Amino acid sequence: MKFTGIQKITLVDYDKEISTTLFTGGCNFRCPFCHNFEFVLMNDDVEIFDTEEIFKYLDSRKHLLTAVVITGGEPTLYKDLKDIIKRIKAMGYKVKLDTNGTNPLIVEELFKESLIDYCAVDIKNSKELYPMTIGIDNYDISNIIKTVEFLLHNGYDYEFRTTIIKNYHTKESIREIGKWVKGAKRFFLQKFEMSENVPLKSLETEELKNVLEYKHILEEYIEDVSIRGYD
Fold it and tell me: What whole-number distance in Å separates Cα of residue 101 and Cα of residue 50?
């Protein structure tokens, strides 16, 4: 795997855990609001961290850390993801996977083999608006639908989450998301904030009052709905 970043200690990426977050390079989406877009494109100036040095760090912090979060980019693009997670689990860590849901068989395999403890799946928008939101015309979301169905019906620990963009999300699209993932364990609405890495500079942060309205809409379909990023 190509690790392009590491946050050595975090209390927010995996609830109730003291974690290290590992960032992988490369992605099959081109989301205009991505904060890690330099990792997505894997330009020549992107630093690649030595995998063995990462494992040395994890080994030296077993007395302090409780979990490792693997995020991206899109981690499931890597064929050696499973082997990497096996090494992490052998150290006694919990593992959380962040994914866009495009590789349902990998998510299923990792859960069934007890290699991940938690999975966060980004639901970018309603099914109809997915291509626009991920920056790829006519994108087939059938694999994302399979990932959602697997998590909804198999009892594993997961969350769905949507980063709210004023330009892309409406009450109607949020309602369609709610219908799609009805009965989900938990759902998070996340605040979008502009940064120098975001490729499309015209995007806007949604006001909290509107996000609260989105939350109420989702609560018609999902019992546990929360908001992240708004003070």
Answer: 27
Q: Give the residue, 202 or 42, on which the prediction is more confident.
A: 202
What is the pLDDT at residue 43? 76
Identify whether 216 is part of a domain.
no
- The torsion angles phi and psi of 160, rounded to 5 degrees, stand at -105, 150
Model pTM score? 0.95
Number of domains in the chain: 1
User: Between the CA of residue 110 and those of 70, 95, 183, 201, what are the distances in Å?
Assistant: 13, 10, 23, 37
**Burial readout 198-208 (b: 16 or more C-beta within 10 A, e: otherwise):** beeeebeebee
Question: DSSP assignment of 92-116, as one string?
Answer: T-EEEEEE-S--HHHHHHHHHTT--
Nearest alpha-carbon partner for 117 in 143, 146, 88: 88
Tell me: pLDDT of 169 over 80.
yes
Containing domain of residue 68, as a range?
Answer: 3-163
Domain contains 210: no
- Whether the ω angle into residue 155 lies within 30 degrees of 0, i.e. cis, is no
Amino acid at 151: L
- pLDDT tens, 61-71? 999 999 999 99
Q: Which alpha helices (DSSP H) does the chain contain, by range?
A: 37-41, 51-60, 81-90, 104-112, 130-134, 142-153, 171-180, 208-218
CATH number of the structural domain spanning residue 110: 3.20.20.70
